[in-house]
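One-letter codes give the sequence; each number marks local geometry. A record appears below:


***
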Amino acid sequence: MSLLTSFSTKAPFFCAALLFGICLALSGQAVATPVLEANSAQPLVAVLPFENLSGAPAPLRQLREEMIKALRNQCGIAVLEEKALEDFMAAHRVRYVGGIDSELAVAFRQETGAQSVLITSFEFQDERVPLKICLTSRLVSTANPPIILWMDSVGLSGDDSPGLLGLGLIHDPAALRGKALARLASSLLETLEGRAVLPGSAGKFRPRIVFRSPVLAPGQPYVLAVLPFFNRSDRKNGGDLMALQFIKELARYEAFQLVEPGVIRQVLLRARIIMDDGLSLSDAAVLFSELRADLILSGKVLDYQESLAFSGSPVVDFSALLFEAKSREIVWASDSHNEGADGVYFYDWGKISTASDLASRMVRSVGSLIAQ
């Protein structure tokens, strides 16, 4: 399985081998057929319309166009033509753009030639001062089952780097959007070139309460399914946003092969599973069987609050539970609460400006403890 870009027209065979190796590292198991054939110098990626999780109107079409430009210009990626994408989505009646299931992934490959799909979720944007924008994006193979090849998020504020006399402040929404999309494209390029490194986690973001069962063996490969979290916060789609953060951070570890959210959604709908206040044992048994997962992670979001003023600070509060298939036991439980100004005492130095960035750092700390 491989990714979807050609970084050197003079060395397509090297690119194929590199990208196939990345897929193997991410999947944690042998893969039957590479997505990128050795004679394919210009593999295609289909860029889906953006999913809006902000709960408010957003310039999704404009953002998507700018993302496509960044992929082409910054990464050298060949993007599936718009007409071909529209015809495919109309033929298959695709309305949900937050993920793809196995059948849709195979259809993408067979009918359009796209060897992977880029899925982007728009989380938040505020054009009041200070400007803010938050996005999460992932690259998914058109294999059966689809595999997450790369995933990252970005949460930026116009006052993140004010600099001397405020010269670094960003007052133009277009400039902040461009910076966010360029950062995502740069992250994707680093993964494609094998330059991505595992980011560290600061101690101040460690969960307040932790339980770990000895059943959770360190170093053992696991297939892991992350369910949407139960949203008890005032933030619309807070549970989906938190689930994406966990998928992103846990996908960085070779020990975990993450199940594509679109596949999980398909199983939940087909099995008519509605989780009102937790995962029952009977529902867990169905999900373990249908998803062929070793672990299922779920939890609750109690607070996912943005800072909407210079003096304010974002707040994120969540709990996480990890279920193991063989024992049917909870093998991990944690509770996390942080504010963007935690540990900040000198002129807002090190202050976190967006809930997305704060949640990402908190989940990164949880992920590093689970993966130990």
Q: What stands out?
A: The two ends are 27 Å apart (CA to CA). Residues 159 and 165 are 12 Å apart (CA to CA). The longest strand covers residues 114-126.
